[in-house]
Design goal:
The chain is α+β, with helices and mostly antiparallel strands. The chain has three domains: 44 residues, Ribbon (Pemi-like Protein 1, Chain: D); 69 residues, YhbY-like (Translation Initiation Factor IF3, 2-Layer Sandwich); 203 residues, Methane Monooxygenase Hydroxylase, Chain G, domain 1. 65% of the residues lie in helices and 10% in strands. The chain contains ten helices and six strands; from the N terminus they run H-E-E-E-H-E-H-E-E-H-H-H-H-H-H-H. It is flat.
Length: 330
């Protein structure tokens, strides 16, 4: 309007829907793709999402904890648990353990109800930084558990096994952020994510968490063998260590290729995985031929399976990297 003023024309039905009249205030925000979003009135801060879960006396602990996790992952920041009678001691312990994993805090509690809230300022978080930290921790677990296997170091194996909870902490927090960004355009803009990013990162986070689980499973096998006072033959341990080292290299290469957008490295991961499968078959034949103890054979099979799964999850990450390489520009 005139020489220096620009005007946005608002659709009449939209102004009527929001009961706007002349002189009312509207807010304008810019999306990541430079499109504009218009809000009726002054833009409000996000309201805290609240939910109440009713817990039955006979509800299984698994059901209670899984419901709590689902509410957390779906963005609820204020969760009230109400028992129809009172919380059993086992329920209370399980809930408190879950709360620690979810970066939440119990603010109110008595025998019949608990109020749990999260104090994290999500808009100030960084999903990429969080993923890199989660990856660094899981990679360290893999390195240490392979050393524990090679040197029959049960104390190191126990340390690795305990660290799996820390990876779970990262996983729950990052999945919550990604899921919220997928449904909240404003938060997605702050994280610089689009819908495809949210899909890719959700799978990526799951794969990192699953690789950490495999490291914990190997640690569990080492601890079990130590408790039974049995050991895997050195020549088989050496081959398992070699296979594990290859799987770890594939994992690290896949993650680095995703962050660096290196499609060639991603393709190398896919090819190398097939070579690891050949080594796995060699280890299987050797274990059944050389080992006499059923416990040792089972441990070898379990460790082989975990190493192979680590390589498979690494290949999944490489596939995500390839898909993202061809992602259209915004």
């Amino acid at each position: 309007m005139g020489r220096s003023s620009l005007v946005i024309s608002l659709p009449k039905y939209w102004t009527q829907l929001n009961e706007l009249k002349q002189g009312d205030v509207v807010s304008v925000a810019m999306n990541r793709d430079r499109s504009l979003v218009i809000f009726p009135g002054v833009k409000k801060e996000r309201e805290i999402e609240k939910i109440t879960l009713h817990i039955g006396e006979k509800d299984r602990i698994f059901q209670v904890i899984r419901s709590l996790i689902a509410c957390y992952l779906n963005g609820y920041s204020d969760i009230r648990l109400v028992s129809n009678k009172f919380f059993k001691a086992t329920q209370q312990r399980a809930i408190r353990d879950a709360v620690k994993k979810l970066y939440m805090r119990i603010m109110e509690a008595d025998t019949k109800q608990m109020r749990i809230i999260t104090l994290i300022e999500e808009s100030k978080a960084s999903i990429e930084v969080g993923i890199k930290r989660m990856f660094a921790l899981s990679s360290s677990m893999c390195k240490d558990v392979l050393l524990a296997l090679k040197n029959n170091n049960v104390e190191l194996a126990k340390t690795v096994y305990a660290l799996d909870d820390e990876v779970d902490h990262f996983s729950f927090l990052l999945l919550r952020l990604v899921r919220k960004a997928a449904t909240d355009p404003t938060l997605a803009n702050q994280f610089k994510l689009d819908a495809l990013d949210c899909l890719d990162y959700q799978t990526f986070i799951h794969r990192i968490e699953q690789i950490a689980d495999q490291a914990a499973n190997i640690a569990k096998s080492i601890i079990l063998l130590h408790g039974r006072k049995e050991r895997i033959s050195k020549n088989i341990v050496d081959k398992l260590y070699l296979a594990g080292t290859i799987a770890l290299e594939l994992y690290e290469k896949a993650v680095n290729s995703l962050f660096s957008n290196d499609i060639k490295a991603s393709e190398e991961v896919m090819v190398s995985k097939a070579n690891l499968e050949k080594l796995d078959q060699e280890i299987a034949s050797l274990a059944f031929l050389k080992e006499k103890s059923t416990t040792v054979i089972c441990a070898c099979c379990s460790i082989r399976d975990s190493i192979l799964r680590m390589a498979e999850f690494a290949a999944d990450i490489a596939e995500i990297a390839i898909d993202r390489f061809y992602k259209p520009s915004p």
